[in-house]
Automatic annotation (TrEMBL):
Pfam families with a match to the protein in the record: NAD_binding_10
Signal peptide: none
Name of the protein this chain belongs to: NAD(P)H-binding protein
Upper lineage: Bacteria, Bacillati, Actinomycetota, Actinomycetes, Kitasatosporales
Residues annotated as domain NAD(P)-binding: 12-136
Species of the source: Streptomyces roseicoloratus
Length: 262
């Protein structure tokens, strides 16, 4: 990484990913401002913008855009941020997106793809990184599915979860570098069926549940079964789902596993 100190704004800087990006950039000696809806002094709803956003961007060299909302509004937020960044003379805008946003017709994915296009047309230099789903998200899904005596999981569907800390490290590398456009995707170390992931979760938590694969209807489910959200050729992560679960339980992490199942 470059030794040059820069002023960097991290949107969504209190979230799962943004917090780690912020911590790492500060450890490297950069001046980092955190923007989120509820954190002072830069409490901003990016869908609305306003004077506080302009103040947050004043003197900023690079923006790492981690803020997102499952309820919609990512495109509007991206446009508001891009317009403000252009006014402030920001040199570099880094955006984190998701593998498959151009292949899986999920409304949230379509919004992320729209935000990508806004960033690409922004004017400042830009970098976009797409990654697979974080371990944390897969865990939340499995926790919800395990609330019933039988875990119903999507049949014929795999995932390629990645450790959020590894994504944060890659984003920091990109943030302190030159604008690079759309960089290669970044995926977790293993492609795993949901049935396999569910059983790994049950083993790690000591729960007893029957796991029942269920075929989900619809075009979106079909695209997930076809692997539209996977990038097996870009398996850059090192931390397996079992490593992640062990770390959450306070156990030492083992080396990343090499098993791969489709």
């Amino acid at each position: 990484m470059t030794a040059t100190t820069t002023t960097i704004l991290v949107t969504g800087g209190t979230g799962t990913l943004g917090r780690l990006v912020t911590e790492r950039l500060r450890e490297e000696g950069h001046q980092v401002r955190v923007l989120s809806r509820h954190t002072q002094p830069y409490a901003v709803d990016l869908r609305e913008g306003g004077p506080v956003l302009d103040t947050a961007l004043d003197g900023v060299d690079t923006v790492v855009h981690c803020a997102t909302t499952l309820g919609g509004g990512d495109e509007k937020a991206a446009r508001v941020l891009v317009d403000a960044a252009r006014r402030a003379g920001v040199r570099h805008l880094v955006y984190i997106s998701i593998v498959g946003v151009d292949r899986v017709p999920l409304p949230y994915y379509r919004a992320k793809l729209g935000a990508e296009r806004i960033v690409e047309e922004s004017g400042p230099g830009w970098t976009i990184l797409r990654t697979t789903q974080f371990h944390d998200l897969v865990l939340r899904v499995l926790e919800a599915l395990a609330k019933t005596p039988v875990m119903l999981v999507p049949s014929g569907t795999s995932d390629q979860p990645i450790d959020v800390a590894e994504v944060a490290g890659r984003l920091c590398e990109l943030a302190v570098g030159e604008p690079a456009g759309r960089v290669p995707d970044m995926g977790g170390p293993e492609v795993r069926t949901f049935t396999d992931l569910a059983r790994a979760y049950l083993t790690a938590t000591g729960r007893r549940r029957a796991v029942l694969p269920v075929r989900l209807p619809g075009r979106t489910a079909a695209r997930f079964r076809a692997g539209g959200h996977l990038t097996p050729d870009r398996a850059m992560g090192r931390t397996s789902f079992e490593d992640f679960l062990a770390a959450r339980a306070g156990e030492p992490r083992a080396g990343a596993r090499t098993r791969r199942s489709a």
